[in-house]
Amino acid sequence: MNAVIKAYDVRGVVGEQIDAAFVTDVGAAFARLMREEGATRVVIGHDMRESSPELSRAFAAGVQAQGLDVVHIGLASTDQLYFASGKLGCPGAMFTASHNPARYNGIKLCRANALPVGQDTGLARIAAEVTTGVPAYEGAAGTESATDLLDDYAVFLRELVNLDQIRPLKIAVDAGNGMGGHTVPAVLGALGAATIVPLYFELDGSFPNHEANPLDPKNLVDLQALVRESGADIGLAFDGDADRCFVVDERGEPVSPSAITALVAERELGKEPGATVIHNLITSRAVPELVEKLGGKPVRTRVGHSFIKQQMAATGAVFGGEHSAHYYFRDFWGADSGMLAALHVLAALGEGTQTVSELMAAYDVYAASGEINSTVADAAERTEAVLAAFADRTASVDRLDGVTVDLIGGGWFNLRASNTEPLLRLNVEAATVDDVNGLVTEILSIVRA
């Protein structure tokens, strides 16, 4: 059960770890929890995977059996489901395995107004009830209805970011055969100044062209080529459920999600000076430095959307960003929306005359390694070995999430053990590429010894 009901969501191989009967039980357990919290209905969306319609219907059956009504919105991105949860004021379930391969599927759950459901806020209880048997409900079954909220979602986002006055832009977009092919035409297609150059917009859960995971550089290659060949001003790449957006500049070079976080933070602080901005602990230090410089309050958190969302709610933060290209907005119920982040980038680009590379230079201050994974037998032992090797160069050690080591003279690194795999994850940031490469080589020689 722990292999499927994870820290943030439900995810596994269809037919082996997840099937209709299992999903029906998850729906029933979720509905019981939500009913106790006062909910009367649940909104359900799904991505383009072959198994998603059947599984979403099975989940709905479990919800209805517990007396709650179901509202189906059909094909949706994850942030479109969050929009529906906010607009309808009810809990939600999104059927997707995000960027995972085709054989996977899963469920992202939220409370009303897109509030998170994580391991400590409901998933552990759901897992326990599915294991022992979900108690039957003696009342009447819930009803079922359907509504299409795609246009409402698109209008809502465009009202949050004014793009009326931007210059004409050619925008190359790689949807990766995922839900970006569904949402991009609705949101960006209505912009008179935007010319969309589409790539892999056909909804296909077998992912025939490449994995829908833009965090892996190999999955950006086609978009990079398209930007260069088409002379696009900017490239956007979405993951499978289109809740994350990656940016490629006019040269075809990837833009760091940390730099995007800094840019959007500056725009949001321009609207609300002194506001709080959330960033996770492996986001570039350029983000908190810029927020402080602008008079805002940076708040650092662990990696993971449930932690970011909790801090968004607790602090009233206007915005939050992660290194993985998840971007969270108070104006979007504290939930993440890659599309909304993309609109901010397009607005910043279109309001001026700079290229993307020129625009982002101010925010891309340091060199970074990106996340490097190593398979290890004992993550804790390897971490302590690294700490010992760097003891005489360490300015401070923080254990908020793994270990974050600030080095004397500048630079830092973080080592985090995976919650689900025998992996140790390394992130390094320093002043120059050479500094980063040197630190990576030294640390990996210890980790992989």
Automatic annotation (TrEMBL):
Keyword terms of this UniProt record: Isomerase, Magnesium, Metal-binding, Phosphoprotein
Keyword Lipoprotein: no
Record domain Alpha-D-phosphohexomutase alpha/beta/alpha: where: 5-131, 152-252, 258-364
Domain of life: Bacteria
Single GO BP term: carbohydrate metabolic process
Cofactor or coenzyme needed: Mg(2+)
CDD domains per the UniProt record, alphabetical: PMM_PGM (cd03089)
GO molecular function: intramolecular phosphotransferase activity; metal ion binding
Domain Alpha-D-phosphohexomutase C-terminal, first and last residues per copy: 371-443
InterPro entries: A-D-PHexomutase_a/b/a-I, A-D-PHexomutase_a/b/a-I/II/III, A-D-PHexomutase_a/b/a-II, A-D-PHexomutase_a/b/a-III, A-D-PHexomutase_C, A-D-PHexomutase_C_sf, Alpha-D-phosphohexomutase_SF
Family to which this protein belongs: Belongs to the phosphohexose mutase family.
Protein name: Phosphomannomutase/phosphoglucomutase
